[in-house]
Amino acid sequence: MGVLKGVKVLDLSRLLPGPYCTLMMADYGAEVIKIEEPGQGDYIRWRKPAIEGIGARHLTINRNKKSIEINLKTDEGKEIFKKMAADADVILESFRPGVMNRLGLGYEEISKINEGIVYCSLTGYGQTGPYRYLPGHDINYIGYSGILGLIGEKDGKPIVPGVQIADIGEEH
Question: Are 161 and 113 found together in one domain?
Fold first, then answer.
């Protein structure tokens, strides 16, 4: 299935929602390059169960992807990223709102070097509003929305569903 053959994606996302999105793109033939922080990388990389020291979920969710470590806090790292972004089709990032702008790598800056870029900023609660800086996971969303209060026995504690409803997030 190569319907996305020729599409280049820079994946700066972590945990599950963003990497799941880019996994589907890679499975459909896109060239996905996962960009990770030096040393630590994606947090899910170190979660158990592990295969030869690498988290099994990390290996699964990042199949068919290339990977590179870039320190986006350095001038050298920013230049490397900008060179990669110049011929990319899609950037997907999942930092808190404003992080990419503070790094000088937000949409406004990148679109100057690649006016056709599709720039996706994935957050739990959007780019504006009172919750924008909060981390978000499925349990948060179904709790805030009232869905969690509908699951379980009457007047009893809610029961956390065994499947993701509102997000493909990391369970804690």
Answer: no
pLDDT tens digits for 87-141? 999 999 999 999 999 999 999 999 999 999 999 999 888 889 999 888 888 888 8
Which residues partner with 33 through β-bridges?
A: 10, 66
pLDDT at 7 over 70: yes
Instruction: Note down the domain range covering 157.
Output: 134-172
**Percent of the chain having pLDDT more than 90?**
54
58: how many CB neighbours lie within 10 A of its CB?
Answer: 22
CA angle 107, 59, 85 (to 5 degrees): 20
| DSSP helix/strand/coil, 60 | helix
Catalytic annotation present for 138 = no
The residue whose two tokens read 């170190």 is 46
User: Catalytic pick from 11, 42, 138, 167?
Assistant: 167
Q: Is residue 88 part of a domain?
A: yes
Return the structure tokens found at 122.
């994935």
Tokens of 81: 């990223």
The candidate with the shortest Cα–Cα distance to 19, out of 34, 37, 30, 4, is 34
Give the domain CATH number at 116: 3.40.50.10540
49: CB partners within 8 A, 6+ apart: 55, 56
